[in-house]
Design a protein that fits this description.
- By secondary structure, the protein is of the alpha/beta class.
- It has two domains: about 140 residues, Rossmann fold (3-Layer(aba) Sandwich); about 150 residues, Rossmann fold, CATH 3.40.50.
- It is about 45% helix and about 20% strand.
- The protein contains 13 helices and twelve strands.
- The strands form two sheets. It has a seven-stranded mixed beta sheet, with helices on both faces.
- Helix 6 links the parallel strand 6 and strand 7.
- Helix 2 packs across helix 11, helix 3 packs across helix 4 and helix 5 packs across helix 6.
- The longest helix is centred in the N-terminal third of the chain and has 24 residues.
- The protein is elongated.
- The protein starts with a helix and ends with a strand.
Length: about 325
């Protein structure tokens, strides 16, 4: 009886010893730290952020286990970006994700060694962020937009919905670096389509009432809102004012149409954010940004708000509805 007891104790001890050795032999889970800096608010484009987080999770990164994400928001204040970048770089982090052209520019000024994945950039080459799309060089890579074909398509859509369109208001933020290029591209396309442009500036919410008064005074027949993280934050108000002033609108991001704008034709930014997660994954695994070509988004969406069309007294042609990726009733 005593032998059995001794044998059992010995076996339990060996099992414990084996388990303990195995536990100590397993390498500790590596924890990555990622910095994400946005020019906007936490609430603006929240669906983009969620898509980015899901993309990382699908690649094996679990927040709080093997990943710590440091998010910073400039809340529409461009002047805050340098300080936020410096703060994140000091943490330190293994990679930095920037959302908007000004954020990418601030990141480039803050570090020449930390890998940077840039998103929502108007034209990375034109802005001097990378040497070329195929060979970015330096420490930046990511996804960059191209304006020409998108602006042309937006104008064509407006002309189909509003036959005889001759006056188009362009709402833009002159402090946003990507605006200059977008305005130039719009002017070229508008001239070809014989549409007269009215350039209306808005740096923030306090300028919107005056901007719409100016549009009404100049008898604008439709409104195109250029992509800008600050104006995007106030998309709901812009959409509401447009309906009040009976102006059909076309935006560059879908949340504006979900909030009451008439139409959006642009990049599917949710898909872009998912794609961005693959860039982060490669960089965390040791690939250099200089070896990752900058991509241009290939997935676009046309979203139409039929309720807004009804409020504006517009009938959307079947040919346009057929092209839509989503119709909001």
């Amino acid at each position: 009886m005593q032998r059995k007891t001794v044998r059992r104790v010995v076996m339990l001890f060996l099992v414990f010893l084996t388990a303990s050795f195995a536990a100590h032999a397993q390498p500790a889970t590596k924890v990555y730290r990622l910095g994400v800096v946005k020019i906007g608010t936490a609430a603006a484009t929240a669906s983009w952020d969620e898509a980015f987080k899901q993309g990382l999770q699908e690649l094996g990164y679990t927040e709080g286990q093997n990943l710590v994400s440091e998010w910073r928001f400039a809340n529409g204040q461009v002047e805050r970006l340098p300080a936020l970048m410096a703060e994140v770089v000091r943490l330190p982090v293994q990679a930095l994700v920037t959302i908007s052209t000004p954020a990418a520019q601030a990141a480039k000024q803050a570090t020449t060694t930390l890998p940077i994945v840039m998103l929502f950039v108007s034209d990375a080459v034109h802005e001097g962020l990378v040497a070329s799309l195929a060979r970015p060089g330096g420490n930046l890579t990511g996804l960059s937009s191209a304006y020409d074909e998108l602006i042309g398509k937006r104008l064509e859509l407006l002309k189909e919905i509003i036959p005889g369109l001759s006056r188009l208001a362009i709402l833009h933020n002159p402090t946003f670096s990507g605006t200059t290029l977008a305005v130039q591209e719009t002017q070229v396309v508008a001239q070809k389509l014989r549409v007269r442009l009215q350039l209306v500036e808005a740096r923030g919410p306090n300028d919107l009432d005056h901007a719409f008064t100016a549009m009404t005074r100049e008898r604008a027949e439709a409104l195109m809102v250029l992509a800008d993280p600050i104006l995007l934050t106030y998309a709901t108000r812009i959409a509401t004012l447009a309906v009040r002033h009976q102006l059909p609108t076309i935006f560059e991001e879908r949340s504006a149409v979900e909030d009451g704008g008439l139409m959006v034709y642009g990049v599917n930014w949710v898909e872009v954010m998912r794609r961005a997660a693959t860039y982060v994954d490669k960089i965390l695994k040791g690939v250099k940004p200089a070896d990752l070509p900058v991509e241009q988004p290939m997935t676009f969406e046309l979203v139409i708000n039929l309720k807004t069309a009804k409020d504006l007294g517009l009938t959307i042609p079947p040919s346009i509805l057929f092209q839509a990726t989503q119709v909001i009733q």
